[in-house]
Structure formats: structure tokens, C-alpha cells
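#lab-general

N.A. 3:47 PM
ok so I finally got the sequence cleaned up, no stray characters, all 310 residues accounted for. can someone with queue access submit it? mine expired

B.Y. 3:52 PM
send it over

N.A. 3:53 PM
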Amino acid sequence: MADAAGLHTGDHAIASGPQEVEYLRWNDAVARAFFGTQATGELVHLDLDDKTLEKIGAEFGLDGPSALRAMADSVTPLLVTDGSRRSMFDAFNKLTEAWYRASRRQLNDLNRIGPPPVVTLLALFSLAGRHMSALAARTGNKSVSAFYLPLAVLLQAGQDNAKALETAVRKDSEMYWDALRYWLELFDGQVGLPSAYAVNHRPVGLALSQTMFGEAELRQLHRMFEDLELTTAQGMSAQELASTWTSGSTSRIRTCPRACAASGPIRSPATPACRSRSPSWERGNPPATTTPRSRVPRSGGLRVTWVRAA
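B.Y. 4:20 PM
back already:
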């Protein structure tokens, strides 16, 4: 049975114990906060901002900060920290495999396929990416290694397990992003569209792509269109548009390049944002955080994130 968001949640048959059930309860809440009929045709970014955390926490009677701590706490007991050869994310690998098997049995009734059991984990990856960006803005350190320290702290993985955590992210995390994409594509955009893309250092780049352009950056982008009197009929390439934006050519958008530069070189990531936002601005719509489905590029409009090697 579908919940208020139009998702099949609450079925925790793939769980192997109470700790996994508790984690899956949070996973359901996080999935409802991002996906569902309210996100039809829209690119969805797993960005745990204050508003989203408050929405998630409301289901459990918690404020935003408490909800974040409880979400992370639901992940920690599932981590493998015994020094064995198993991946630190072994429990999530098994949950994902079980979810795939269960979903394939329900392909004749998509409404019975719930969200993949890694939405919460991916959202926490994205939050670690946001912390990495903030650290880069303060210190200039754009190395991918700066991603793993905030993630280890967030998940309480322990200093002794930092290397194992990095290895698990590198080895397993792309499978989790693939599971999310698979689920969204099964529903053909009815509960949201995938937005995670990267071309290099993918485990970190995929997480960074989720928080690169928030509401503030998109508002700045719309202001640029207005200031420069741009329309899609002017023949400006997406690359030129991105260059104009990141150069801070008008007084009202000078904060935008600084906000984006915290995540590393921006010209490539800015390109799809400029391309996707200009049609909705030209139609006279107010600044928004989503792109109508008819305007979403399904193949060419990749959201690209570049990060510097460690």
C-alpha cells in the first residue's frame, strides 16, 4: 500500500534483525522526504538541508539536528568494524542484493517496489560532501581525502577504521547510486529523476553532485538571466553561459561563484545547471528549485563534478 508520498514503504522483510529494521524505518522517512508524487519529473538531490531534516524529524517527533544524529546512529551499528576482510558496508550490500531480488519479483506491480535500502546512507554521503566543500572554502584543500574525515565522524566509524571506510566507499558506493537510479527509472520519473553524475573520482564526485547547486545558487542563476537579459534564443552556448555565471559578471551574482567554488572547479558542473534553468526562466516562471519533466535532459544533460586527486 502506498504512503502519503505515493511510495511503498514500511515493508522491512529484507531486514535480518532489529537494527536493520530500525535503519530501514529511517530509510523510509528519508525516501519520503525526497521522492514521491510531489517530485514527479523533477531532478532530486539528496541534500539534507535544514528544511529537509525538519521534515524527516517530524515523523519521529524530533527537531532537525536530532533527526540527523538519529539517522547516522541507525547506520553505525550496521558497519563492520571488527577488522575482518568483509567490507565495512557488508550489511548494506546484503540489503541491496535482497532488495534487488525482491523488486524483480514485483516488476508486474511497480507500486509494490519500495525505495532501495541505501537512501539514508547516500544522503549521509552527500552531507559529508557538503562538509568537504565547506572545508575546501576555508582551507583551500580540495583533495578527495577531505571527504572521508567528516564521513567517519558522522558515522562514528572510529579513527582506526578510517582506511576501511574509505575502501568501502570506493568499492561499494557506486552500486548504491546505481540502485537508486534503477528504482527511479523503473517509475519513469513519476517519483523523481536521478541527479547524481560525475566523471572522475566518482565515489566522491557523485556525493558532491548532490549539494553543488542548492536553492540559493539557483536563485542567483535566475538573477543572472535577468541581469544580463538572456534568453535561450540568443545563441549562447551552455559553456559560455557557465563561464559568464562563474566569472561574477554582474553585481547581483557575485556570491554565486564563491558559493560554488567551495566544491572545486566549477565550469563543468555549472554547465547543466545553466542549460536546465534557462528555459524555465524564459517562460517567465519565478525562481524555482526544480525543472519540469519535459525540460529535463535524459541523456545529454549530465551533472558533472570535478575533484582534485589526493
